[in-house]
Amino acid sequence: MIAMNAHPFIELTRTLATLKNTGKCGKLLGKLLSILAKEKTPKWVIDNWNQSGLKWSDLINSECEKVDLLEKYNLEFVVKGINNNCGKLSENKMTLEQISEYLLKLLKEENFDNITSWISLNVGQQSKQPQFVRCLVTDILKTSIEAIDESWRLKSETFCKLLPLITRYVDAKRDLELQCLYAIQSYNHELMYPQGILSKIIDHLCDQYVLSDDAFIEWGKTENPNERNGHAVAIKTLTSFFTKLREAERDDSSE
What we know:
By secondary structure, the protein is mainly α. It has 15 helices and 2 strands.
């Protein structure tokens, strides 16, 4: 209910009053804030905590109990803010499946700062890896493509709002640009090549200058045996796009 803003933070003083009197409030509060930080991002917890006007003394009986709670549940970020990795939710490396699960929840909110904050704190250096880029792009597609009757529709507004995330984590690196295109190719294959979807996706990527022309050209020519699924169909679908791309390349080289 708190995650859906149906139960304001300030109401915790009332709902947890009995537990505070018995000295058991800290454990529940620690678990609650930890879960909220995972599901809604640490920044969300900080913002809502500060806006509520809550003080630790409203819920915790002693400074010692507060310190133990912050350390045990990795909640130092609520006090210190998000910096120096403060607020990292787990010392254990998250699996791609776990990352994808949380990303899908965050992407639906379309809040760039919350998403990047969560990635920074919980994915860390993994965000520079090809596997993460594929995961991110696939989740963006899952968020942006919806089923209608027996077909699929690209929610262009949603997709375009999320494109800055691809720009940020691909970071103009050719190998990661290719991973982005492979992820699109793979998901298009998974959906059994819905009519018009791939062309619209590519158009948006070009209009927003998310990927380089060289990346598209290399993708079109790739013979990577691990990326065969959907590749031939995707390139054939985009015949007109690649023709224009090659013409523009020839014009540039002749100038």
